[in-house]
Amino acid sequence: MTGLERFSINQMTVKQLSLPELADACTGLGIRHVGLWREPVQSYGLEATAKLVRDAGLTVTTLCRGGFLTAIGPAERAAALADNRRAVDEAAALGTDTLVLVSGGLPAGSKDLRGARERIADALAELGPYAERHGVRLAIEPLHPMYAADRCVVSTLTQALDLAERFPAHQVGVTVDTYHLWWDDRAPEQIARAGATGRIHTFQLADWTTPLPEGVLNGRGQIGDGAIDMREWKAYVETAGYTGPIEVELFNDGLWARDGREVLAETAARFVEHVME
Amino acid sequence: MTGLERFSINQMTVKQLSLPELADACTGLGIRHVGLWREPVQSYGLEATAKLVRDAGLTVTTLCRGGFLTAIGPAERAAALADNRRAVDEAAALGTDTLVLVSGGLPAGSKDLRGARERIADALAELGPYAERHGVRLAIEPLHPMYAADRCVVSTLTQALDLAERFPAHQVGVTVDTYHLWWDDRAPEQIARAGATGRIHTFQLADWTTPLPEGVLNGRGQIGDGAIDMREWKAYVETAGYTGPIEVELFNDGLWARDGREVLAETAARFVEHVME
């Protein structure tokens, strides 16, 4: 299939495939890039995964995910920092320069969004230099505001950049994901802001489809099925200077119930049709 | 119960109660204000409802809802405008000065949020003067971004004010609803902006609880059950000059399954505890 030079398949999109199945399917379709997740990598083995993707000629565009940095208690905070240092180590071992961060939600019983956001900055001050020493950049991912309470208190690209810009760009940047940002009329100007300081560390796609499922986690739409004009968002990041890989990351119960190789081929075809052509 | 002087119960919170039951329950609890919805009012009869609430000594704080102004086709647009003029007439007949507007989502197949928002402005230019002649103010309600595709393309208070400020404040203002705005770090400054031009036409409360239910419509939390600091938001609107009634509007399958009078009493008690004390 032509038009896949910049396509990266985020592993979560086809989580029904094992890592060897994924690598094999990518080779068959001419897919050159993958985004990986820590849990399946740990299950398969970090070094084994690194060898697998290397042997398949795949580059790892991102590792998902670090973060969850909003805890208040010292023990919990120390544990979160230690886990994020491990995530940096894993990213480095896999040969990717980008670790995606999902910041974490409000601690139980808390109603203090501002305080939670400030604790993320405190954590980044520790993690940024550590990541730099390992050749890894942290990419704060603003998640859709519907996740503000229980998953990610960073809800807009503006907030993500306000955090990131306290640190050097080679330590901390952002993840631009259409699913989380498409509704925000300020996002285009914020993409320009991110590009101007070299902070677009990864660009991810998912489409917005409704109705949302219970829990609103696993309803990310296949590219072309929803409300988002993918070419428009690609143009925003390209105008801002980003010409790297484009990851498709779908959490979708319907896609997960299907044959993974079929979903991968469909996703690649949708990418070519709705993003590249 | 003391502390209920500013409390208004939005009818949807206890939709299991008929209008006479609601009026009777309000009288029994010392509740002075209600927010009404068009459909149950039409079912009971417009004039009958107006007499009922008048006889019970209740003021109608808002009528919900007009809007749905994003259609593209001329026939659909004309029908929407006609329906909104009827909504203005109904508001006037009920003695309320505020009609809440939910703007509408993307038309089927459209991915053009900006165009949809612009069509709302076109509609307001027709409806604003009509409302003014009937002593009614339109209150654009920004809905949470999770509704941007299918329900309301106006997702932030900033966007709502950008629309409203094209018109006189006595024609078009905004609805400030904690459920929709709580995640937005810009909302406090935008509340100040709204207050400075006299555009806070109503203030509504619901709490944010998770997990969200399928379709994300009927999971608005009882006051005090969720992530929102109600006193903080009350302080924002008061600092901005708003000292009017405060509506509690909950869409919640769990509350609807219970005895309506019990839910009303609970909601009033929660209001006193979490908002006023």
Folded structure, characterized:
Two copies of one chain form a homodimer. The first copy, chain A, is α/β, with parallel strands linked by helices and 277 residues long. The model of chain A has no long low-confidence stretch (mean pLDDT 98). The longest helix of chain A has 21 residues, at 74-94. Helices cover 44% and strands 17% of the residues of chain A. The first copy, chain A, is globular and about 50 Å long. The first copy, chain A, has a single domain, classed as TIM Barrel (Alpha-Beta Barrel). In chain A, helix 6 links the parallel strand 5 (137-140) and strand 6 (172-177). Chains A and B meet through loops of A and loops of B.
Give a concise summary.
2 copies of one chain form a homodimer. The first copy, chain A, has 11 helices and 10 strands.
**SS class of chain A:** alpha/beta
Low-confidence stretches of chain A: none
Percent strand of chain A: 15-25%
Q: What is the assembly state of the chains in this entry?
A: homodimer
Q: What's the Cα radius of gyration of chain A?
A: 18 Å
Chain pair sharing the greatest interface: A-B, 32 and 32 residues
Reported for the largest beta sheet of chain A, the result is:
8 strands, parallel, barrel
Give a count of the beta strands of chain A, DSSP E runs of length 2 or more. 10
* Overall shape of chain A: globular
Overall CATH class of chain A: Alpha Beta
Element pattern of chain A in H and E: EHEHHEHEHEHEHHEEEHEHH
The helicity of chain A comes to 40-55%
Q: Per CATH, what is the topology of chain A? A: TIM Barrel
Count of separate structural domains of chain A: 1
CATH superfamily of chain A: Divalent-metal-dependent TIM barrel enzymes
